[in-house]
Amino acid sequence: MKANYLDLFFYIVFSLALCYDYFPTVFPSTPFQKSIFFFAILILFVIGLIKDQIKNSSEQNVFPAQLFFHIFSIAFIGALTFLGGESHSGISLTNPILWIVFTVSFIQIFLQRKKSKRRRFDTL
Questions:
Q1: Could you tell me the residue range of the domain that residue 78 belongs to?
Q2: How far is CA 63 from each of CA 66, 75, 93, rounded to the nearest angstrom?
Q3: How far is CA 33 from CA 11, 30, 53, 82, in A?
Q4: Which of 59, 51, 55, 56 is nearest to 119 (CA)?
């Protein structure tokens, strides 16, 4: 899986946002703390839009990247929980909505992969 700077920046901002959610007291208290968190979420959204517009990776490379993101998210949330953090926004491994979203997302990823393989086979 080829990583680029946009992906790296996305994972750094995503990780910091989760860390802030689980351990808000660790970060320096500023009057703009909520604004900074909102800005981080906005950056993640914009990066997602940019990545969709670039489409520089082939369909084969999208599957491992999406799968890695899901595994990374679950593992990182688990690590933050293990370290004693508690999400203030409700993101938790015990939250059934999180598992429903991940399950639906995994199904979508595997259906896209299957469709991509079928399309590739039909063009041969």
A1: 5-123
A2: 5, 18, 23
A3: 20, 5, 30, 25
A4: 59
Closest CA to 39 of 11, 17, 12: 17
* pTM of this structure: 0.74
Given a contact cutoff of 8 angstroms between Cβ atoms, the answer to whether 72 and 11 are in contact is yes
Q: For the chain, how many structural domains are there in total?
A: 1
Higher pLDDT, 113 or 75: 75
Stretch 24-35: mean pLDDT, rounded?
Answer: 74
81 and 92 Cβ atoms separated by less than 8 Å: yes
Above 80 in pLDDT, residue 60? no
As a whole number of angstroms, the distance between CA 77 and CA 42 comes to 20
| Residue 9: predicted pLDDT | 80
